[in-house]
Amino acid sequence: MTNAFVTLVTNADYAMGATALAHSLRLTGTMAEIVVLHTGGVTHSELAPLDALGCRLVEVGHLPLSDDFNERHTRRNLHSAAPFTKGRKPDFHTPLDNFCKLRLWQLIEYETCVFIDADALVLRNVDKLFRYPEFSAAPNVYESLADFHRLNSGVFVAKPSTETFDRMLAALDQPEAFWRRTDQTFLESFFPDWHGLPVFMNMLQYVWFNLPELWDWNSVCILHYQYEKPWEKDHPKMERLRPLIDLWHSVHDGASLPDLSSMPKPKPSP
C-alpha cells in the first residue's frame, strides 16, 4: 500500500492555497501521492492547476449529519457561541466544511495519510511523518507555551479505516454535541491520547510575532497560515507577517524554495 499527503479544498481561495501547498511538496522531492479532497464549492477550472501538478482529485460531500447538528455548526451560530478573539477568519470560512477532513479515513487504499491544511507550505521534506502513529498532531502553539496541551488539526497523521470513520460519525453527531473549533475540537476528543508532533511540523504564523524565540528557520518544516490568509489583499496583520506572506507568494508563483538560512529573523512584538 502507498502513502499520501491529503488536503481539503472547499472554494476558489483554498484551491489557490492548495496549489501553493502541492508545489511546495513537489519541491521537497517527495514521491508520495498528493490527494485533494474537494467539495461542490470549487469549479473544474479552479482545480485545473492542481491537476497539472499531478494531484489526485477526489470529490467529497458534507458528512451525513443531523439537521440539528448542521444548524448548531453554521458559521453564524458557531461564531456567535464561540467567537474568535485571537485573529480574524476570512469571510469565506465555512465551519461545516471543516468536518469534510474526516473523509480522509475513507481513503482506505492508502496505508498512512498525512493531512495538511491548504493554507500551509511545506519547506523541507517531511516524508518521515508517514512513520508516525495514528493519531499524531502538533500542538496549537501560537500565543504562549501554555498552548502545548492543545492540538492543531492543520497537520496530522492518520490511518484510513472504514471502521474508524463509522465510529467517528457516531461520536460526532451526539444529541446537543457542539464542537467549538469543529474538526479540531472533535479530533482532540476522539483521540485523547494523541501523539505530539514537533511544533516545527505545524509552525503557526502567529509564532512569528508572539513567540519569536521559538522560531527557527533551520527547523521549520511546515508553515501554517492560521487566521488571516497570505492571499488576502489586506488584513490587519499583513505588515507584521510580510516575510511569511512574501514567501507564500513566491512559492505559489512557481519559484523554488528559498535558502531558509537567509530568511529574516522574527522580531519581538513592541
What can you see in these coordinates?
- The structure is a single chain.
- The protein is an alpha/beta fold and 270 residues long.
- The protein has a single domain, classed as Alpha-Beta Complex (Spore Coat Polysaccharide Biosynthesis Protein SpsA, Chain A), CATH 3.90.550.10.
- The chain has helices at residues 12-27, 44-52, 67-72, 75-81, 95-98, 162-172, 183-190, 207-210, 242-252; strands at 2-9, 33-38, 56-59, 110-116, 120-122, 136-139, 151-158, 195-196, 203-204, 222-224.
- Helix 1 (12-27) runs parallel beside helix 2 and helix 1 packs across helix 9.
- The longest helix has 16 residues, at 12-27.
- The N and C termini lie far apart (51 Å).
What would the keywords be for this entry?
270 residues, alpha/beta, Spore Coat Polysaccharide Biosynthesis Protein SpsA, Chain A, seven-stranded mixed β-sheet, 9 helices
What's a quick, concise take on this entry?
This protein is α/β, with parallel strands linked by helices and 270 residues long. It has nine helices and ten strands.
